[in-house]
Write a structure and sequence with these properties.
InterPro entries: Aldolase_TIM, OxRdtase_FMN_N, YqjM-like. By secondary structure, the chain is an alpha/beta fold. The protein has a single domain (8-354), classed as Alpha-Beta Barrel (TIM Barrel). Helix content is 32%, strand content 15%. The strands form 3 sheets. An 8-stranded parallel barrel has the order 3-4-5-8-9-10-11-12, surrounded by 6 helices. It has a two-stranded antiparallel ribbon with strand order 1-2. A two-stranded parallel ribbon has the order 6-7. β11, α8 (306-314) and β12 (320-323) form a beta-alpha-beta unit. The longest helix has 20 residues, at 150-169. The protein starts with 7 loop residues before the first strand and ends in a 23-residue tail after the last helix.
Length: 364
């Protein structure tokens, strides 16, 4: 059994294994700037043995944050702060590092999850007016976002481009565009949140336009050494919303544009979603998309059993598996998985003595 711990080429990167750490917001930034928490958090994940570490969603402008404590990458201050955290992680690890670039759209201006996650009024402390493709709230009693003009859209496209340039300047290895979980790009994609009648709304081609414009603009400014991918929600889990058929068309368009990978999640757009949550419940969506494109596809969602993860790779359902909450709960999941499957991962020599007696060392 040796599939999860085989190398994988994604764009210009060769991953040591097929375990990816998915981006997870920490809600611990200072006006967009990384803090000491990020240094501790990234340092721990960098020693995980995973093949790729994707940093949490970084907002491309202040309005694009989910909460007032979200990470950002929109000016010299936020860039410098992240550079300092990355420097510590890189001192002891050579794991490839990606960053997810994002805009929250109508899901912006909220409390931290552990403070309730409720929307904050635009005129209250730590609040601001959210924006969206259409003036439709996320929840029935939620704030009505300001509808973006075409000029506003162009400005946000420029913000994504500027953030991509900053990411490359930081020496980050890959960029993941966040087009999932009900945030701004997903809001453009879904007919449930996009009722525009211009070039950014209406038919599928128009609803995909904003994301494809982001891709085009990024590819125009990043070097040929940067790997670029997209995370999507393959379905809204709501009748009449974004679905797998549209996701496959989008995935094919992204591959044709020159994207290097697609990271397949689901949901997040509507409070009416009905999700059949179970271990691996999103894998069939990744499998369907993988059959339609010739670039690597990452599956995610309650994949916490090493043998199940290995089977996903062995059966060709996905090229890599991503862990989020599971690796927060068990930061050494990759080490344990390698030991269980009789394989090896890179780990710091300071931890060599922790290999269980009688089990082949998962370290090299």
């Amino acid at each position: 059994m040796n599939h999860l711990f085989t190398p994988l080429k994604i764009g210009h990167l060769t991953l040591e294994n097929r375990v990816v750490i998915a981006p997870m917001c920490q809600y611990s930034a200072d006006e967009g700037a990384a803090t000491d928490w990020h240094t501790l958090h990234l340092g721990r994940l960098a020693l995980s043995g995973a093949g790729l570490l994707i940093l949490e969603a970084a907002a491309v402008n202040p309005t694009g944050r989910i909460t007032y404590a979200d990470l950002g990458l929109w000016d010299d201050r936020t860039e410098l702060a992240l550079a300092q955290s990355l420097a510590v992680a890189r001192r002891y690890s050579n794991i490839p590092i990606a960053i997810q670039l994002s805009h929250a759209g109508r899901k912006a201006s909220t409390q931290k999850p552990w403070d309730g996650g409720n929307f904050i009024a635009a005129d209250a402390q730590n609040g601001w007016p959210p924006v969206a493709p259409s003036a439709l709230p996320f929840t029935v009693d939620g704030p009505i976002p300001d509808e973006l003009s075409v000029k506003d859209i162009v400005n946000i496209l420029e913000d994504f481009t500027a953030a991509a340039k900053r990411a490359e300047r930081l020496g980050i290895d890959a960029i993941e565009i966040h087009a999932a979980h009900g945030y701004l790009i997903h809001q453009f994609l879904s007919p449930l949140s996009n009722t525009r009648d211009d070039q950014y709304g209406g038919n599928l081609e128009n609803r995909m336009r904003f994301l494809l414009d982001v891709v085009d603009r990024m590819l125009a400014v990043i070097s040929d050494k940067m790997t670029l991918g997209v995370r999507i929600s393959a379905t809204d889990w709501v009748d009449g919303g974004w679905d797998l058929g549209q996701s496959i068309i989008l995935a094919q368009a992204l591959a044709a544009k020159g994207c290097h990978f697609i990271h397949v999640s689901t949901a997040g757009l509507s409070s009416q979603q009905q999700i059949p949550v179970a271990p691996g419940f999103q894998v069939p969506f990744a499998e369907a998309i993988k059959q339609a494109v010739d670039i690597p596809v990452i599956a995610v969602g309650l994949i916490d059993n090493p043998k199940v993860a290995d089977e996903i790779i062995a059966s060709g359902k996905a090229d890599a598996v991503a862990l989020a909450r599971g690796i927060l709960y068990n930061p050494h999941w990759v080490w344990h998985a390698a030991a269980e499957l009789g394989q090896q991962v890179t780990a710091p020599p300071q931890y060599l003595r922790s290999s269980p007696h009688g089990i082949p060392s998962p370290f090299k």
